[in-house]
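=== RUN LOG ===
request id: a7f3
mode: sequence -> structure
chains: 1
length: 307
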Amino acid sequence: MAQRKNKGRRVNGILLLDKPLNMTSNGALQQVKRHFQANKIGHTGSLDPLASGLLPLCLGEATKFSAYLLDADKSYEGICRLGKRTTTADAEGDVIEEHPVPPLTEVQLQQVLRQFIGTIEQIPPMHSAIKVQGQPLYKLAHQGIEIERKSREITIHELTLLSMQPTEFHFSLRCSKGTYVRTLAEDIGRVIGCGAYLGGLRRTQVGPFSLGNAVTLDSIAVLAAEQDFPALDALLLPMEAALSQWPALQLTENSTFYVRQGQPVQVAKAPTAGWVRLFGQNSQFLGVGEIMDDGRVAPKRLVDTHS
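=== RESULT ===
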């Protein structure tokens, strides 16, 4: 039986997309794949349809490093609406509870927010993609089924009050992977005693990447309509940009040869431990490696930019 050829252009890099509201992350990804005519693409952790903002997409060989961005800290700006709870903990759901909002001063609200800073336990919402026995929770939620979920440890690095009105406030947040901002809003409402839901959310940072450098689907569509592939490809960051916090090691021609064979090599002035980015001749990115106990560098994930 003949193998199916993977159709599309071989294009490698990271696209910082400003995902619009009311679109799934996969929907945005499929549009970008079509516009770039890329043979391979993946995202680095989905954004809800009701959230907009930064969605880094990995094209081609960059998909090998998407997991590192998935693990990265994220930053958001959002609106928390007080006095109501909804089925989904956001504006999409039906209102299931309504309570009067107590008069709050800025100082009192800041005191509430401070309670959530640090490492905390969070119970994921039913309307999430987490799977239980192979079934996504949101599918069970749509059937009206609620099951017990285990709490997960997350870290809230920063939670800042930006502005407030009697029944809502605007905040910024920097948090660890796996944080459900909808659940955070609901938990804040519980502490205040009036209930709350997430009224809007925009992701502003993922790891080393910020929203200020992102491009829109509309601007990509214009270039795609003109079939201006050089201009499209110029929008991509190099795939190693996802790993910018790791030390870089320049390999000799000899070491490059052995690394490409999957063999550990000795590298002068290498760190004593941890993960490193590997570069060959002409500063070509080779992939990532890990320092072994004996000081040699073992290749762990290599890129193929030849075939």
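=== NOTES ===
The mean pLDDT is 90.
The first strand starts at residue 13 and ends at 19.
=== END ===
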